[in-house]
Amino acid sequence: MKNFLLTSIIAALLLSMFSCSGSGSADYQGIDTLSLTGELIIPYDHIKTPENIYASDDKIFLVNSPGVDTLIDEFTSNGKPVRSFLSKGQGPDEAAFIFSSYIEAGKKRLMMVTTPGELRSVSLEADAQPLTKKVFAYNPDKDTLNFSVKTFMMADNHVLSAINSDKGIFALFNSDGTFDRILAGHLPESDFGEGLPEYAKINFLQPAGAVSPDGKHFVCYFGRADMTGFANIDGDSIDFRINYVAPPKGINVIVGDGYISFDFGDDYTYYFTGNVTASDSHAYMPYCGMLARDAEKRNKDMAAGEIEPFSLIRVYDFDGNIVRVLRTDVNARAIAVSPDDKNLYVLTENDDQGYYIVKYSLPGYN
């Protein structure tokens, strides 16, 4: 199938919603794998069209697709409906579309990108009016950069964002919206594939990320590469490291007369899938490590009940080390963890029940 770079950001967002399960790469061999049995807490008839799930100390939040009139649904941690808020629209306290989002549980707000180059927040406190607030806006100053739709704010107003630039794919910004420095450069052309301009690589390396509830840690994976990033606040500075295992596979670049497009080859691979979630001490990422065609077939078979569903979720410390692997008894579409690491919530679906939410109690860490 052939796609043009003008639409590849949308394609990347859609592809990130696939989930799958595989044996994974060898870097967690010897790490404990814990099999978990979940409890259904939110059935399909209480759910609209969710795209993501978040958790605070005592609440669950579902972010819906723009196909419904209200974009956020709130539940207790045991699945009891609380309220729906943030109307879809063009008004000052509405949102037409949420490109990306994450929860900042420590400040009880949902952070969201509704316009590239900006970051807005909406309060998650039940007694507060669901008003949106602009908390970051890019100021070009001397450096003009093209923002993607993935922007994150850590504690002390440190802002990290994916960028479409020949400078790199991920950058740090000051609280006044000005550019600070590049945090992640481009993959070597020999790794990525010849012919693709540097500025276009972010189309295949869009970061799926999360900020810890206390704001001190950030974690992400980069698109279809086997590549993760970890940022930690250390005093007044940020330490950012990348674990780079493998570039995207199976992306064939086509250079034409005045345009660049691409198609996917037989070795197109899903490494990490879905979203990323973080507690105050760990990061959680569903891992796949399968050829795309095999992963999609497995997803269909699990949804149809032809094979037993499961997902593998890697748990990392904030230095980027895998500390355990969780095996759930459902196919995870999106995940959320409580700030204290005690509960994992999984958004899943199958052909019989549609969407539903399963809760897992997590054992403690030694």
Features:
366 residues, mainly beta, 6-stranded mixed β-sheet, 4-stranded antiparallel β-sheet, 7% helix, globular, disordered N terminus
| Gross geometry | globular
N-to-C CA distance: 47 Å
Compute the gyration radius: what is it? 19 Å
Number-wise, the strands total: 29
How is the main sheet built?
A: 6 strands, mixed
Into which percentage range does the β-strand content fall? Answer: over 45%
Structure characterization notes:
With 366 residues, the protein is mostly beta strands. It is built from three helices and 29 strands. The protein has helices at residues 8-15, 189-192, 292-303, and strands at residues 2-4, 33-35, 39-42, 50-55, 59-64, 70-76, 81-87, 100-104, 109-113, 118-123, 132-137, 146-153, 159-164, 170-173, 179-184, 207-211, 217-222, 226-234, 237-246, 251-255, 260-264, 269-272, 277-278, 283-291, 311-316, 322-328, 334-337, 343-350, 354-361. Strands 2, 22, 23, 24, 25 and 26 form a six-stranded mixed β-sheet that branches. Strands 3-29-28-27 form a four-stranded antiparallel β-sheet, with no helix packed on it. Strand 16 (207-211) and strand 17 form a beta hairpin. The longest helix is centred in the last third of the chain and has 12 residues, at 292-303. The radius of gyration is 19 Å and the shape is globular. The chain starts with a strand and ends in a 5-residue tail after the last strand. Mean pLDDT is 87; it is low at 1-19 and 21-26.
